[in-house]
Amino acid sequence: NVEKANTALEKVLNDHSEYPEIIETIANIYLKSGYFEKAIPFFEKVIAAEPGDISNHFQLSVCCAATNNLPLALSNLEKAMELLPAQQDDLADLVLSLYLDTILENIFIHGTLDNISGFLRESLTIVEKYNRRDTFLKAIPDVIFILLRQYETLETGRLEKIETLLNEIFKEEPDMVVP
After folding, report:
1. At what angle do helices 20-32 and 54-66 cross, to 10 degrees?
2. CB-neighbour burial class of residue 53 (10 A; exposed 0-12, middle 13-18, buried 19+)
3. Backbone angles phi, psi at 18, to 5 degrees
């Protein structure tokens, strides 16, 4: 029961609100349960306490993308990119790839088409500043395959609209393959 779980989480938070780890755990529970709106203030509190944690900036970006709060999604993506190691290494690219998959999956499923378009264009500009364009472009087909596995649960025509949008945005991109 969601109400009982929320009550239990609120009690834990009230009893232990001074521990950022508890606030982060609650934020992640809401995120993983699809309660993006509820997760946002918890991630904001954790980030205020631990501003250098890359993961929390990416997670907040996921929640904001899923709730169509593009300015906050993009600003946290930007902050996470600032915190990623500057050198092009496999670990940094893997971290970015995993989070981009999650962010893009959630905005593709929950975002409006205008917000998807805006987010893709703006986030591409952000990752280009940090020389991670290739990682970004590789994430998009991965997310499309994730969506294909969920095709039956998507609203009718959603995947086709996203495909059209991607083809429009990346029509000049020779390395971009939209499945």
Report:
1. 40
2. middle
3. -80, -5
The contacts of residue 148 (CB under 8 Å, 6+ apart) are: 159, 179
At 50-69, the pLDDT tens digits run 999 999 999 999 999 999 99
Rounded CA separation 117/179 (Å):
18
What is the pTM for the complete model shown? 0.84
* CA 49/CA 163 separation, integer angstroms: 39
CB 106 within 8 A of CB 66: yes
Q: Is the dihedral of CA 59, 68, 102, 76 positive or negative?
A: negative
Buried b (16+ CB within 10 A) or exposed e, 84-110: beeeeeeebbebbbebbbbbbbbbbbe
Phi-psi region of 68 (alpha: psi -120 to 50; beta: other; left: phi over 0): left
